[in-house]
């Protein structure tokens, strides 16, 4: 299989597109937690109860379609290999928690992989919509539409005072988690992020790593999301997040201008050194790869590096994860072997782009 063919089939179609403010905001996500009133919630359900809920949901949603999203594909966790589940986590289509679940859980995914509906994770249903760039309102509109469509088929667990009932008290109310994935290399290089992150928490938001709670912010990529789900409308929660992210975007742009103005040679040196590592290294650890990819992406956004697409960071941050490496090379790999294969894949990806840019006779 050629690398280009693998990329076309492995990287989610929505991820290969640009969106508003895509130089800083990589993606926008809305997730809604919902439970069915007639079944015990997954966290307390017996195996028999969980299976009943699973097949009840499957009967209602499998092979169904919603407007332009097309038909949803049903993937049951006990029918997938561990590598396949790992790839779904790395593509943000399922949570790490669902990866650990057994045959009592599943996920529904549309063709473009912009929508996934997790079944029997912490809640009966977790509806997730992903958009490229800064498109929170668009993601919320789609999520609400899908939510209404699903609610027409099920009786949700809902309380007039408390709102939607969820397994975790922190999700009660709207059941909404809104988040954006942002690339903030200049704020990290200038160390301004150290004082900005605590300030963000004061707005009822949280700063996490690329895979959410408990994960590390690899490659200067952060997930900013809401913590409060009760006492505010969905629109207000999203608007609060939008306002903070807009400030982050502005601060990152200021930091980038300052770096160009005061440390241009040092910045160019850093970017080209990282480009050289990616283009020529034979062994590269995931953290070093993420750091170098972040530098090169910054160089692309600032016009210092040409001939590479902006989406290369999005692609390679996913493709160089352990699951994808083993999926691409079709073999189980030790950590040391992954470091070698990661370097190979990155070199091939850069060479692929360079070959496309070469003039043809």
Automatic annotation (TrEMBL):
Annotated binding of ATP, by residue: 27-31, 92, 126, 177-181, 208-213
Keyword ATP-binding tagged: yes
Organism: Pullulanibacillus camelliae
Matching Pfam families: ATP-gua_Ptrans
Family affiliation: Belongs to the ATP:guanido phosphotransferase family.
Keyword Kinase: yes
Protein task: Catalyzes the specific phosphorylation of arginine residues in proteins.
UniProt motif RDXXRA motif of the pArg binding pocket involved in allosteric regulation: location: 338-343
Domain Phosphagen kinase C-terminal per the UniProt entry, residue ranges: 24-255
CC per GO annotation: extracellular space
InterPro entries according to UniProt: Arg_Kinase, ATP-guanido_PTrfase, ATP-guanido_PTrfase_AS, ATP-guanido_PTrfase_cat, Gln_synth/guanido_kin_cat_dom
Protein name (record): Protein-arginine kinase
